[in-house]
Specification:
alpha/beta, 10 helices, seven-stranded mixed beta sheet, globular
Protein backbone atom coordinates (compact mmCIF):
# COMPACT_ATOMS: atom_id res chain seq x y z
CA UNK A 1 0.00 0.00 0.00
CA UNK A 2 2.89 2.35 0.66
CA UNK A 3 4.16 1.70 -2.88
CA UNK A 4 0.68 2.19 -4.33
CA UNK A 5 0.29 5.47 -2.47
CA UNK A 6 3.60 6.72 -3.85
CA UNK A 7 3.07 5.86 -7.50
CA UNK A 8 -0.65 5.65 -8.35
CA UNK A 9 -1.06 9.36 -9.12
CA UNK A 10 1.74 9.37 -11.72
CA UNK A 11 2.61 5.85 -12.90
CA UNK A 12 1.41 5.07 -16.44
CA UNK A 13 -0.53 1.90 -15.60
CA UNK A 14 -2.57 3.48 -12.79
CA UNK A 15 -3.19 6.64 -14.81
CA UNK A 16 -4.20 4.70 -17.91
CA UNK A 17 -6.51 2.31 -16.10
CA UNK A 18 -8.18 5.15 -14.18
CA UNK A 19 -8.60 7.15 -17.39
CA UNK A 20 -10.18 4.20 -19.19
CA UNK A 21 -12.51 3.54 -16.27
CA UNK A 22 -13.66 7.14 -16.01
CA UNK A 23 -14.31 7.57 -19.76
CA UNK A 24 -16.11 4.24 -20.07
CA UNK A 25 -18.22 4.88 -16.97
CA UNK A 26 -19.21 8.33 -18.19
CA UNK A 27 -20.35 6.83 -21.48
CA UNK A 28 -22.00 3.70 -20.05
CA UNK A 29 -23.85 5.63 -17.34
CA UNK A 30 -24.93 8.24 -19.91
CA UNK A 31 -23.32 11.12 -18.06
CA UNK A 32 -25.27 10.69 -14.79
CA UNK A 33 -23.84 12.82 -11.97
CA UNK A 34 -26.02 11.90 -8.98
CA UNK A 35 -25.10 8.22 -8.58
CA UNK A 36 -24.45 6.62 -5.22
CA UNK A 37 -21.19 4.75 -5.83
CA UNK A 38 -19.16 2.17 -3.91
CA UNK A 39 -15.50 1.56 -4.79
CA UNK A 40 -14.64 -1.94 -3.52
CA UNK A 41 -10.96 -2.43 -2.74
CA UNK A 42 -10.44 1.32 -2.79
CA UNK A 43 -6.76 1.04 -1.92
CA UNK A 44 -5.13 4.34 -1.06
CA UNK A 45 -7.85 6.51 -2.57
CA UNK A 46 -6.83 7.71 -6.03
CA UNK A 47 -9.90 6.18 -7.67
CA UNK A 48 -12.18 7.76 -5.07
CA UNK A 49 -10.72 11.16 -5.92
CA UNK A 50 -11.16 10.61 -9.67
CA UNK A 51 -14.69 9.17 -9.56
CA UNK A 52 -16.15 11.95 -7.40
CA UNK A 53 -17.34 13.69 -10.57
CA UNK A 54 -19.75 10.77 -11.15
CA UNK A 55 -21.63 11.03 -7.85
CA UNK A 56 -21.46 10.36 -4.12
CA UNK A 57 -18.58 8.05 -3.32
CA UNK A 58 -17.98 5.48 -0.59
CA UNK A 59 -14.90 3.26 -0.51
CA UNK A 60 -14.07 0.09 1.38
CA UNK A 61 -10.93 -2.00 1.78
CA UNK A 62 -9.87 -4.91 3.95
CA UNK A 63 -6.54 -3.27 4.91
CA UNK A 64 -6.39 -0.70 7.73
CA UNK A 65 -3.26 0.71 6.03
CA UNK A 66 -5.29 1.50 2.92
CA UNK A 67 -7.94 3.33 4.93
CA UNK A 68 -5.21 5.29 6.72
CA UNK A 69 -3.75 6.41 3.39
CA UNK A 70 -7.23 7.47 2.24
CA UNK A 71 -7.58 9.55 5.40
CA UNK A 72 -4.20 11.17 4.68
CA UNK A 73 -5.65 12.34 1.36
CA UNK A 74 -8.66 13.85 3.09
CA UNK A 75 -11.03 11.07 2.05
CA UNK A 76 -13.48 10.49 4.91
CA UNK A 77 -15.78 8.21 2.90
CA UNK A 78 -13.49 5.14 3.10
CA UNK A 79 -14.47 2.41 5.58
CA UNK A 80 -12.84 -0.82 6.69
CA UNK A 81 -14.25 -4.00 5.18
CA UNK A 82 -14.01 -6.64 7.96
CA UNK A 83 -14.13 -9.72 5.71
CA UNK A 84 -12.77 -10.24 2.16
CA UNK A 85 -16.05 -11.64 0.81
CA UNK A 86 -18.54 -9.56 2.85
CA UNK A 87 -19.52 -5.94 2.31
CA UNK A 88 -20.57 -3.89 5.39
CA UNK A 89 -23.60 -2.26 3.74
CA UNK A 90 -27.36 -2.92 3.63
CA UNK A 91 -29.13 -4.47 0.65
CA UNK A 92 -29.78 -2.24 -2.38
CA UNK A 93 -27.57 0.62 -1.18
CA UNK A 94 -25.76 1.71 -4.36
CA UNK A 95 -26.41 2.65 -7.98
CA UNK A 96 -22.89 1.73 -9.12
CA UNK A 97 -20.06 -0.42 -7.81
CA UNK A 98 -16.49 -0.19 -9.08
CA UNK A 99 -13.90 -2.90 -8.48
CA UNK A 100 -10.64 -2.13 -10.25
CA UNK A 101 -8.34 -5.17 -10.12
CA UNK A 102 -10.00 -6.55 -7.00
CA UNK A 103 -11.79 -9.85 -7.60
CA UNK A 104 -8.60 -11.68 -8.65
CA UNK A 105 -7.36 -11.18 -5.06
CA UNK A 106 -10.37 -12.84 -3.44
CA UNK A 107 -10.44 -16.58 -2.81
CA UNK A 108 -14.24 -16.74 -3.00
CA UNK A 109 -14.73 -14.45 -5.99
CA UNK A 110 -18.19 -15.93 -6.61
CA UNK A 111 -19.21 -14.98 -3.07
CA UNK A 112 -17.93 -11.44 -3.51
CA UNK A 113 -19.87 -11.06 -6.76
CA UNK A 114 -23.03 -12.16 -4.94
CA UNK A 115 -22.31 -9.55 -2.26
CA UNK A 116 -21.93 -6.84 -4.88
CA UNK A 117 -25.22 -7.97 -6.41
CA UNK A 118 -26.84 -7.78 -2.95
CA UNK A 119 -25.80 -4.19 -2.18
CA UNK A 120 -26.69 -2.89 -5.67
CA UNK A 121 -30.09 -1.36 -6.29
CA UNK A 122 -32.24 -3.09 -8.96
CA UNK A 123 -31.02 -1.79 -12.30
CA UNK A 124 -27.66 -0.84 -10.80
CA UNK A 125 -24.34 -1.71 -12.44
CA UNK A 126 -20.94 -3.03 -11.39
CA UNK A 127 -17.76 -2.07 -13.23
CA UNK A 128 -14.73 -4.37 -13.14
CA UNK A 129 -11.17 -4.56 -14.36
CA UNK A 130 -9.15 -7.73 -13.79
CA UNK A 131 -6.10 -9.52 -15.26
CA UNK A 132 -6.73 -11.58 -18.39
CA UNK A 133 -5.51 -14.93 -19.71
CA UNK A 134 -4.27 -17.57 -17.23
CA UNK A 135 -1.43 -18.33 -19.67
CA UNK A 136 0.09 -14.94 -18.79
CA UNK A 137 0.55 -15.88 -15.12
CA UNK A 138 3.96 -14.73 -13.83
CA UNK A 139 5.87 -13.62 -10.76
CA UNK A 140 4.14 -10.26 -11.21
CA UNK A 141 0.83 -11.92 -10.28
CA UNK A 142 2.42 -13.70 -7.32
CA UNK A 143 3.97 -10.50 -5.99
CA UNK A 144 0.55 -8.80 -6.08
CA UNK A 145 -1.14 -11.78 -4.35
CA UNK A 146 -3.41 -12.63 -7.26
CA UNK A 147 -5.42 -15.83 -7.00
CA UNK A 148 -6.15 -16.10 -10.74
CA UNK A 149 -6.35 -14.47 -14.16
CA UNK A 150 -9.61 -14.71 -16.12
CA UNK A 151 -10.73 -15.78 -19.55
CA UNK A 152 -13.53 -13.67 -21.01
CA UNK A 153 -16.03 -16.53 -21.04
CA UNK A 154 -15.16 -17.50 -17.47
CA UNK A 155 -15.74 -13.95 -16.23
CA UNK A 156 -19.11 -13.69 -17.98
CA UNK A 157 -20.16 -17.04 -16.45
CA UNK A 158 -19.20 -15.75 -12.99
CA UNK A 159 -21.43 -12.72 -13.52
CA UNK A 160 -24.39 -14.83 -14.61
CA UNK A 161 -24.02 -17.20 -11.66
CA UNK A 162 -24.15 -14.20 -9.29
CA UNK A 163 -27.33 -12.86 -10.92
CA UNK A 164 -25.78 -10.20 -13.18
CA UNK A 165 -26.28 -9.55 -16.86
CA UNK A 166 -22.98 -8.83 -18.63
CA UNK A 167 -23.67 -5.73 -20.73
CA UNK A 168 -20.18 -4.76 -21.90
CA UNK A 169 -16.97 -6.78 -21.88
CA UNK A 170 -13.70 -5.76 -23.51
CA UNK A 171 -10.00 -6.36 -23.15
CA UNK A 172 -7.65 -3.50 -22.26
CA UNK A 173 -3.94 -2.85 -22.71
CA UNK A 174 -3.73 -4.51 -26.11
CA UNK A 175 -1.17 -2.25 -27.79
CA UNK A 176 1.49 -2.93 -25.16
CA UNK A 177 0.83 -6.66 -24.94
CA UNK A 178 3.46 -7.62 -27.59
CA UNK A 179 6.08 -5.74 -25.56
CA UNK A 180 5.05 -6.66 -22.03
CA UNK A 181 4.51 -10.40 -22.56
CA UNK A 182 8.10 -11.26 -23.68
CA UNK A 183 9.60 -8.96 -21.04
CA UNK A 184 7.44 -10.58 -18.35
CA UNK A 185 8.32 -14.06 -19.65
CA UNK A 186 12.04 -13.27 -19.45
CA UNK A 187 11.78 -11.73 -15.98
CA UNK A 188 9.79 -14.73 -14.83
CA UNK A 189 12.62 -17.06 -15.70
CA UNK A 190 15.42 -14.84 -14.46
CA UNK A 191 13.92 -13.78 -11.12
CA UNK A 192 11.64 -16.63 -9.99
CA UNK A 193 14.38 -18.19 -7.86
CA UNK A 194 15.00 -14.80 -6.21
CA UNK A 195 11.37 -14.26 -5.15
CA UNK A 196 8.32 -12.65 -6.69
CA UNK A 197 8.58 -9.05 -7.89
CA UNK A 198 6.02 -6.88 -9.66
CA UNK A 199 6.39 -5.05 -12.98
CA UNK A 200 6.07 -1.67 -11.28
CA UNK A 201 9.39 0.06 -11.89
CA UNK A 202 10.07 3.12 -9.79
CA UNK A 203 13.14 3.90 -11.93
CA UNK A 204 11.16 4.07 -15.19
CA UNK A 205 12.39 7.14 -17.14
CA UNK A 206 9.84 9.90 -17.47
CA UNK A 207 9.79 9.75 -21.28
CA UNK A 208 9.08 6.01 -21.19
CA UNK A 209 6.32 6.45 -18.60
CA UNK A 210 4.76 9.04 -20.91
CA UNK A 211 5.09 6.77 -23.96
CA UNK A 212 3.48 3.81 -22.16
CA UNK A 213 0.63 6.02 -20.95
CA UNK A 214 0.07 7.35 -24.47
CA UNK A 215 -0.11 3.83 -25.91
CA UNK A 216 -2.46 2.62 -23.18
CA UNK A 217 -4.70 5.69 -23.48
CA UNK A 218 -4.84 5.52 -27.29
CA UNK A 219 -7.12 2.49 -27.02
CA UNK A 220 -9.99 4.77 -25.97
CA UNK A 221 -10.51 5.81 -29.59
CA UNK A 222 -11.07 2.16 -30.59
CA UNK A 223 -13.33 1.51 -27.60
CA UNK A 224 -15.74 4.20 -28.75
CA UNK A 225 -16.75 1.86 -31.58
CA UNK A 226 -15.95 -1.74 -30.60
CA UNK A 227 -14.42 -3.89 -27.83
CA UNK A 228 -10.78 -4.91 -28.05
CA UNK A 229 -10.32 -8.59 -28.96
CA UNK A 230 -7.32 -9.18 -26.66
CA UNK A 231 -5.23 -7.46 -24.00
CA UNK A 232 -3.52 -7.86 -20.64
CA UNK A 233 -6.71 -6.99 -18.74
CA UNK A 234 -10.45 -7.51 -18.97
CA UNK A 235 -12.93 -4.70 -18.37
CA UNK A 236 -16.65 -5.30 -17.89
CA UNK A 237 -19.92 -3.64 -16.97
CA UNK A 238 -22.44 -6.04 -15.39
CA UNK A 239 -25.97 -5.03 -14.43
CA UNK A 240 -28.38 -6.19 -11.76
CA UNK A 241 -31.77 -6.76 -13.48
Amino acid sequence: YELMHRIELGYWWFLGRRGHALRLLERWTRGARDLKILDVGCGTGANLLAFRRLGRLTGCDIAPEAIAFCRSRGIAEAVLQPEPDRLPFPDASFDLITALDVIEHIKDDAGMLREMHRVLKPGGAAFFTTPAFPALWSVHDESLHHMRRYRRRELVERFRAAGFTAERVTYLNALLLPLIVPVRWLRDRLTRSKGATSDFNLDLPGWLNTAFLAAFSAERAWLRFAPLPFGLSLCALARKP
